[in-house]
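Assemble and predict.
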Amino acid sequence: MDIKKMAKIFKALSNPNRLELYLKIADARESDFQTSGECFVTDIIDSLNIGAPTISHHIKELANADLIITEKRGKFLTCRVNEQLVAEIIKLLTLRQSTK
Amino acid sequence: MDIKKMAKIFKALSNPNRLELYLKIADARESDFQTSGECFVTDIIDSLNIGAPTISHHIKELANADLIITEKRGKFLTCRVNEQLVAEIIKLLTLRQSTK
DNA sequence: ATATCAATTTGAAAATTATCGAAATGTAAT
DNA sequence: ATTACATTTCGATAATTTTCAAATTGATAT
């Protein structure tokens, strides 16, 4: 993976609110809202105290970094983690560890 | 690990130049400059085309996020990756993967 | 003691980012 | 058709970030 792409991924996770959003999406797999790994934005918006426009912007940035995959379901939006990408990141970080 | 700390770590890796710097430090373990995982800043500064003040600032930010550990050796500065922290990050990301 | 050189600090400019309120869009329900 | 509601777009502002040139510090070598 090229450095710019990698930096973009980390940037997407570098804002506390956006990171929290990402973690909620990631954890939704095991929560009440789940539908095979997906999560509805509506269901998590209340638990973060930031406005809807900001959420929308953050989601776009996560999706733009390929960290999540979104899908429109009627008027709702669902998100799920792009596990392949995250696996790649984990591998890249692990490669540099002496305790591999 | 708390979210703010986690975000700070990702932020430290979110700038392409700073990420490249980090990766060079991480890879120095297996390079010519190595002294048991350490690397001298002098030896990598030429390979990045950014000025010394910027490098200094970036190193401080990486160290501030605990991603690297620095040590002064006379007038030189050496860096090495904080492998414990990186291992923790890897674990946190892996926990959310279905392919653990 | 002086010169050299690695690194840091300072001050500043340009660019980017996070966030919001208001308005707009599009879907679904009545 | 009208309403309600999730999400998005727009425009704007405040805060943060990246970067550099110039000056400073501190250590080593001559």
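Strands of chain B lie at 39-40, 68-73, 76-81.
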